[in-house]
Amino acid sequence: MKGFDSEKPRIYTWNVNGLTNTTGRTNLRRFLTEENPDVLCLNRTQLEAKDLASVQTRDELSSLHYLQYWNCIKAGSTDASDSTGTATAILTKVKPIGVSFGMGSDRDDSDSEGRVITMEFGKFILVSCYSPPAHDPDRLEYKTLKWDRALHDYLQALVSKRHKYVILCGDMSSAHSTMDNPRGMIMAPGEAHPKTAAPPTRAHLLNPEDLSIPKGPAGIRSDRMMGLLNFGFVDSFRRLHPKEVKYTCWNLGANPRIGNKGWRFDYFMVNGGIIDAIEESDMLTAVMGSDHCPIKLVPNLAKIQAPALPPIEVPEEETRKSARVKKRDAKLCMKRLGQARRMQHSWGNARVEELNEQAEEKSPEG
Known about the structure:
Order of helices and strands: EHEHHEHEEHEEHEHHEHEEEHH
Strand content: 15-25%
Shape: globular
CATH architecture of the largest domain: 4-Layer Sandwich
Strand order of the largest sheet: 3-4-2-1-12-11
Number of helices: 11
């Protein structure tokens, strides 16, 4: 299977704030033409299945030779007010090894709301997601508990079962440090605004001294990002730019980008061997067309090493005399060999031969 043309593929994610109109699709085409990304993940396309044909077959996308994968809003999704703003897509020049939609969990509504797409490539797994914001008090428990737990479990399963590292990207609807929102205001779910005794809206965070701003439910959460960081993921932008203040989202109108008043809601989170392979991670703040700007990640694939396979415990020599123990050991060794062979397409013959030799050395005699 053909891989990326470069060892340093350019991966982008962008909350486009809708592709249901001509303006949104024109902005997307302009971005694809100017940036020429290898992979582009889209959040908040707002598309339902009935809208897809008119977008997918239009010249502005098909003529640029991208493979298109759309996860649309399903009819009758759990929350109409949320689902009208969801749906995701991935445009890629490289055919993935595999693609899945949603997280396959009964505990969340991501499958019906089109929030998650997962792609497996040769040396990494890409998860594009649009996390639900906490602006609706009726779904606050779902967003702060069920969604976050389902996402954590899903990522954990990917890491443990696929033996590849993960790139998680998209609008996380969360700013996890004081540098990621203006005036350093970070509030937990439901925490009261210090001036209004009510949970904050985005407007509160931009103007915390303005008491005339209407009260509203919590919109910024730091706990989601901390959960990912504690799970072994690293914020790629902060990895390269620990002190720089840049944002990815602004209120529409009055051009708040000029005053640099916004939030950093959009992230590339990486784990394992990808952490030290990050060449570039940045925001394209000059790109207009949405209340969010695109962000970019460039990993160096040559620096990503194969994850270590789970160790096999070899029993003491005297315990290997019985036929039952020998049979067990043989099954363990065959499992190791099978894992190595399945990785051949990703890591090459040299790594596979090394794993085969390790397994054969531990194979019981006879």
